[in-house]
Specification:
Layout lengths: L1 E8 L9 H16 L5 E6 L2 E6 L6 H8 L5 E10 L3 H5 L6 H4 L4 E8 L8 H15 L4 E2 L6 E8 L2 E13 L8 E5 L5 H11 L3 E8 L6 H18 L2 E7 L1 H10 L5 H20 L4 E2 L12 H8 L6 E2 L7 H11 L2 H4 L21 H8 L4 H10 L2 E5 L10
Parallel strand pairs: 5-6, 5-7, 9-10, 9-12, 10-11, 12-13
Antiparallel strand pairs: 1-3, 1-4, 2-3, 4-8, 7-8, 11-14
Helix pairs in contact: 6-7, 6-11, 8-9, 9-10, 9-14
Bound molecules: adenosine-5'-triphosphate and magnesium ion.
Length: about 400
């Protein structure tokens, strides 16, 4: 018996004229993702991509695990493929054992896209329902809220039987909305922010600011590890690492302490602006959550935002820490995020940061030192690395 995977569209199904573009990107992402497991054919029809193993010895379990992480897919369904002969399907209902033996109720849905098949959909539904009850007499039919839906689809090249459907990530395929630059710190919030924007179809690359020797090599490795983990959902990620020490020292030596954090954040944004311009990113993403800390009050965000020349996306702005943490656990970044390495934000942290800074005061304080040249220098000295989906290269003990 052969198994295949059906990837049902999420939001793409609602697209109009430009739907083809989204579908092309989705199929490309699926193929790229499954390449390491072998060769698959991807055939799309009726808001579904039919993912069929072509090479031998492919683990469908592993393939399903990958497919459920791809943005743009609303549900993943696993099916057995049989010849188009109702008798054969009936004799193979043991395929449904692991789902139906433990279930209480079911219904059948049948579809006949091959109109030459002698039974019509309602007849298939009726016959299959009877056959299922014969084999699993403990089951009740419930057409409104069944625990399991058994699906049989008669297509040109076979009969597809399934009872397993897993909810997908939803969203839009990565690469369908352009690309943006995520300010990635070592914390819990920014990887979640990156995940959320990749879900809206953005290619997410990362920028990280380091201040050696105040921040250690381990701290940088931790962030690289986060990038590696994010590739599970975001696909390949470019990682820009910006030397930030001199800027921070200059700030410490020249500006009032109570404004350190906001000015530092503005300088980070000014560097991000230049990288966006040079590399063609259309937006900056941050992990800011309103009022979580002093640098994220409305007044502080207003001051930081003023430095940005690109739209700034803050997808976790309205989430609380518990919600963000839940997502971080689900996407697999939490454990790395809580590793106790210092971030450059924790260097020179003011004891009493202003929670309601005024933009004029900030601009005046920032004018006490000439940061423009230093911003350009930091951009010039920025290094780039690429993290490819599926590669494990960063080791932390
Ligand atoms: P996170 O959990 O993402 O670290 P946080 O709650 O610690 O966030 P802050 O340290 O105030 O918050 O940082 C706010 C945002 O600024 C981060 O979510 C991130 O987008 C950006 N940021 C902070 N530090 C850095 C850094 N060293 N490199 C890149 N971006 C940073
Ligand atoms: Mg942080």
């Amino acid at each position: 018996m052969k198994e295949i995977i059906l990837a049902k569209y999420g939001e793409i199904a609602l697209k109009g004229d430009n739907r083809r573009t989204f579908e092309d990107i989705l199929v490309r992402n699926i193929k790229r993702r499954l390449k390491k497991l072998g060769s698959f054919s991807c055939d799309r029809r009726q808001s579904t991509v039919y993912i069929e193993p072509v090479s031998e010895n492919i683990s469908v379990d592993e393939a399903v695990e990958e497919v459920v992480k791809i943005f743009g897919i609303g549900a993943v369904q696993r099916c057995a493929v049989f010849p188009k002969d109702f008798g054969v399907v009936e004799n193979n209902l043991d395929y449904l054992d692991d789902v139906l033996l433990g279930a209480k109720s079911f219904k059948v849905e049948a579809k006949r896209s091959d109109k030459s098949f002698p039974l019509k959909s309602p007849d298939i539904q009726q016959k299959l329902g009877d056959a299922v009850i014969d084999r699993f007499p403990h089951l009740k039919v419930d057409v409104h809220e069944p625990e399991v839906t058994v699906r049989l689809e008669i297509r040109d090249n076979g009969a597809y039987l399934s009872a397993k459907r897993i909810t997908g990530q939803g969203g839009l395929p990565v690469g369908s909305s352009g690309k943006a630059l995520l300010m990635l710190s070592g914390g819990i919030d920014s990887p979640v922010a990156g995940y959320m924007m990749a879900k809206r179809g953005l290619i997410v690359d990362c920028i990280h600011y380091i201040s050696p020797p105040y921040t250690s090599d381990r701290a940088r490795l931790k962030v690289e590890k986060l990038c590696e983990e994010m590739t599970e959902y975001c696909g390949d990620i470019r990682f820009f690492c910006v030397p930030f020490t001199e800027i921070q020292e200059k700030l410490r030596d020249n500006c009032p302490e109570e404004f350190f954090t906001v000015i530092m954040r503005r300088l980070m944004v000014k560097i991000a602006n230049k990288i966006c311009e040079r590399e063609g990113y259309g937006a900056i993403i941050t992990g800011e959550s309103l009022a979580q800390v002093a640098s994220q009050t409305l007044a502080a965000i207003e001051c930081t935002n003023e430095a940005a020349r690109f739209p700034v996306f803050r997808p976790v702005i309205g989430m609380d820490k518990i919600e963000i943490t839940e997502t971080a656990r689900r996407i697999g970044t939490f454990e790395t995020s809580i590793m106790p390495y210092e971030d450059c934000c924790t260097v020179f942290t003011p004891k009493h940061p202003r929670t309601k800074p005024k933009l004029n005061d900030i601009l005046e304080a920032e004018g006490l030192a000439d940061f423009d040249r230093m911003v350009d220098e930091a951009v010039e000295k920025t290094t780039v690395k690429r993290f490819r989906f599926g590669e494990k290269t960063v080791f932390l003990d």
